[in-house]
Amino acid sequence: xxxxxxxxxxxxxxxxxxxxxxxxxxxxxxxxxxxxxxxxxxxxxxxxxxxxxxxxxxxxxxxxxxxxxxxxxxxxxxxxxxxxxxxxxxxxxxxxxxxxxxxxxxxxxxxxxxxxxxxxxxxxxxxxxxxxxxxxxxxxxxxxxxxxxxxxxxxxxxxxxxxxxxxxxxxxxxxxxxxxxxxxxxxxxxxxxxxxxxxxxxxxxxxxxxxxxxxxxxxxxxxxxxxxxxxxxxxxxxxxxxxxxxxxxxxxxxxxxxxxxxxxxxxxxxxxxxxxxxxxxxxxxxxxxxxxxxxxxxxxxxxxxxxxxxxxxxxxxxxxxxxxxxxxxxxxxxxxxxxxxxxxxxxxxxxxxxxxxxxxxxxxxxxxxxxxxxxxxxxxxxxxxxxxxxxxxxxxxxxxxxxxxxxxxxxxxxxxxxxxxxxxxxxxxxxxxxxxxxxxxxxxxxxxxxxxxxxxxxxxxxxxxxxxxxxxxxxxxxxxx
Length: 481
Ligand SMILES: C[C@@](O)(CCOP(=O)(O)OP(=O)(O)O)CC(=O)O
Fold this sequence. Notes:
This is 8-oxo-dGDP phosphatase NUDT18. Belongs to the Nudix hydrolase family. Helix content is 16%, strand content 22%. It has helices spanning 78-92, 144-147, 236-248, 312-323, 377-382, 385-395, 462-477, and strands at residues 121-131, 207-213, 223-224, 227-229, 250-262, 267-279, 293-298, 340-350, 355-361, 370-372, 401-413, 422-432, 449-454. The ligand C[C@@](O)(CCOP(=O)(O)OP(=O)(O)O)CC(=O)O is lined by residues 123, 157, 216, 227-229, 243.
């Protein structure tokens, strides 16, 4: 339901005669980009994007309107299965797929493209972990509040909700942070004579974190990680590299996305584990409006006062990832999108039959469903998860189901040519609250979605096999609350 209590319905599209053009992507079917049977879609400005030459044009079938019986399923159509399997493998492999339309959007909201620094603020943040013996920074004058273990005067940021979308299949959840009590680095302290990046790998206990000292008036002298707001026209990686150069003096490459934090679709932060590739660490002699200096600090005793304690779980996430990578490397895929949306890999796992089902949108070519995030007060308060629940509520009876967002499989954004939107490819699991009835997927209402049985023989990549086994293993030990 929207926040006005009205049910939301994706408009049922009519199959369009194939014009030979169609969406890019691995699907075995052609989705007419300009036929907006589903939500708006990304024709983007001007004409619909020219799809790359198709491999095997095929008819777009209107799907049997059959009754929405329990777990209505995609007809055993080989082409459909192959197309879906390819789409699923691409997403599981961290790749992107063009967003041509979406299956659910908040009713009554204008479908206007999002615009950076107008209705969305994207932030990039880099965690650099380095093993080096840092020359001990000069003794620092203590400040009264440091010993009281109270938040620094500018205090930790108060998020309206847990600022986290989970990354990786075992989804470390970002909890609220602890309060550091180490001595602060007074704003005008002598520069710490840190060494430049050496990149040696030694035991975790010697991890050093790259921190920058803020020059902004509102947080002058506090310490943080290199971070900043994206600017219109730049890609996510370009923004990350710009911010790190401005604030720390280093060139860098992202190693992987560690997590995406969000406070609704209007504020999203992309957190990366990154590595320096050159440049010279910024010292206090190069202080400017971007930062006062950059220093490496032991992970177990970061510089204080901190601008906000929300970086502590991020540093831990980076250390955990470096110690044991819990998910494949995820880097932003440069694909245009006009809204903040999420492509769902919504799965139901039957342990008894060792079967994994995936929810599929059937408006147009069979596809992984996409839900557009809304900017209503409820969706802002509830976070982007609300858009997932909105889509699932449209086709499932949620009150007897446990829905969990398990992790981020991929991120799509281009930023060029007025395409400021993002598409997050997200893993969602659906299970019955009563574990007794687990063998068949829950009934699907309406005709816009079906459960698609993900057969062993329809996937090729080992990542898909690993993913499927992961789901099956998780389901055996999952305790549905
Ligand atoms: C960490 C953040 O506050 C990002 C902003 O960092 P800066 O205030 O440094 O922004 P720029 O001026 O764009 O560099 C996250 C946030 O609360 O928005």
